[in-house]
Amino acid sequence: MTMTASRSTNPSARAGRAVASRRACAALGVALAALVSWAAPARVPARASAVPAAGGVAFVEVGARAGLRFVHNSGRAGRKLLPEAMGPGCAFFDADGDGWLDVLLINGRDWTPGARRSTHALYRNDRNGRFTDVTAGSGLDVQQYGLGVTVGDYDNDGRRDVYVTSLDGDRLFHNEGGFRFKDVTPASGIQNKDFGTSAAFLDYDKDGRLDLFVANYVKWTPATDLWCSLDGARKSYCTPESYKGSPSRLYRNLGAGRFEDVSARAGIADPGSKSLGVAVLDYNRDGWPDVFVANDTQPNKLWRNTGKGTFVDEGTAAGVAFSEDGTARGGMGVDAGDYDGSGHAHVLVGNFANEMLGLYHNEGSGLFVDEAPRSAVGRESQLSLTFGAFFFDYDLDGRLDILTANGHLEEEIEAVQPKVTYRQPPLLFRNLGGGRFESMRGKVGADFETPLVARGAAHGDFDGDGDLDVLIATNHGPAKLLRNDGGNRNRYLRVSLRGRRSNADGLGAVVVVTTAQGKQEATAHSGSSYCSASDLSLTFGLGTAGLAQSVEVHWPSGVRQRFADVAVNRTVLIDELAGLVAAPRAPAPAPAPARAQR
Questions:
Q1: 186 CB contacts (<8 Å, ≥6 apart)?
Q2: Cα–Cα distance between 91 and 470 in angstroms, integer?
Q3: pTM of this prediction?
């Protein structure tokens, strides 16, 4: 988050461009294809379609009518304290194990204690397109200045737990079942009060227990908040250059609910980082989970996992630390995925206004090339300030598309930068194949064009109709739920994992789906986007394919499974020991009978 980005020299930028110029001569194709998402069969009552007559996809905003009544409290009261502009995040996850995605929305609070009560909000999916607020008594109904959230089953009991980053100190909530969560932070050994933002569960040492990576931002307190100004007269939110960085944290899971801070020992405790986004990926395909961290006005980090409990930063050498011209940008949201079927994880980074997105193509040689400046992705995002950002297959055609959630920090920005707005619409880029993307501006419904002050964003199929919907958290405003209408005209397969020797969520497992149209590969992971958590299941868009010829799973434990002739348009649960089993899912309620007309 920066008004102006400091400049540094990137010694790998020229090398990266040279690699790009030689790409036409490179050996043709690794056959592994796009890390895509999938979906589930339609199980909700029929509804009127909002799909444009041309046959495309529309995103329809249904948050309020679906029962999401949440409004974020940033605590702002005219003082313009730095954290007010930073939150919040959001999560799609199955809190009660019924097979339907519930919603968690993270809240801030007033700076003056007792002014009003603000808590996070937990919504139960009623399995009919609506949600019920179950916050009260859930254990998540706490007052804290929350920013981000990640989800994972850290104790392998079959229930997904919640970690919330917060200015007041991060908290770990154990899922007790029945929409009840217990704050176990003191007993866990986790102590992070360093402006935590995004976080991710991962099994970095492959011992079968989920560890935790937390991105921290800057050293800040209300007493040390600085006076900055856009126009020299009125206070504005300061850029992060004004504050010292706060090193990120890595907590190793010791079992029995205990974690150990191994940040320094693992080598990731960089005091200069000002981190906002975290993505877990295996960029060099050595079987060990690496970590990409998006930094604000500091070089991004690509932490290579050595497999020996330590990490080495390869960001500069790999060409992802800076922009193409050697600038450290204002990095925020981040994701990783194989958008071109090369078999390699590429990196998407949301940046500040006038900096465009970063779309780093993994060359497979340890180098990345930023493709955004030469594509619609760069041109269309130039004026956007992007927080939430992720790859997903919104039209289920088998190619990963891109969504960004945007919004500025300063309400008065237009007075000094007339081309940049405070409220900004999301951006959607449809993957055309061959590394090309098309801006879908004006093509996916009027609701998608609504300008927002967006922050966190997540994806998941909340209504069980197969295609991927989008949840967006806005700063000091209401949550937005964008229902995908029409994406399920193509076929799909959703894969949920249950680890036994590996961690229960199967994070780090690689799933390969083969159809007559080719192969797709996806890795189960948490984190990504900005301060948010998307559904942990893997969604594979299959286009017109009527059968998955094979589904393979490569587990972190080393177990490998292969299943032939898997039916599509459904959810499958793959157990590391039992194999492919029917995914448990509570049925949707029957539609209410029509009432007689008066």
A1: none
A2: 10
A3: 0.91
- What is the rounded distance in angstroms from the CA atom of residue 574 to the CA atom of residue 524? 12
Amino acid (1-letter code) at residue 33: A
Radius of gyration of the chain (CA): 22
Q: What would the pLDDT profile of 506-523 be if each residue is shown by its tens digit?
A: 999 999 999 999 999 999
Which tokens go with 122?
């937990």
Token pair 């069969």 is found at 41
Find the distance separating the first CA and the last CA of the chain, reported in whole Å: 57
How many CB atoms lie under 10 A from the CB of residue 450?
14
Closest CA to 426 of 396, 399, 392, 397: 392
Q: Please list, in sequence order, all residues whose beta carbon lies within 8 angstroms of the beta carbon of residue 60, skipping any fewer than 6 positions away.
A: 50, 445, 447, 482, 483, 485
283 and 291 in contact (C-beta within 8 Å)? no
d(CA 35, CA 524): 10
**CA distances to 125, 203, 227, 255, 458 from 94, in Å:** 9, 21, 43, 23, 14
Q: Region 329-339: what's the mean pLDDT?
A: 98
Please, which residues have CB within 8 angstroms of residue 590's CB and are 6 or more apart in sequence? none
For residues 398-402, give the mean pLDDT: 98
CA dist 20 to 62, 115, 321, Å? 43, 56, 17
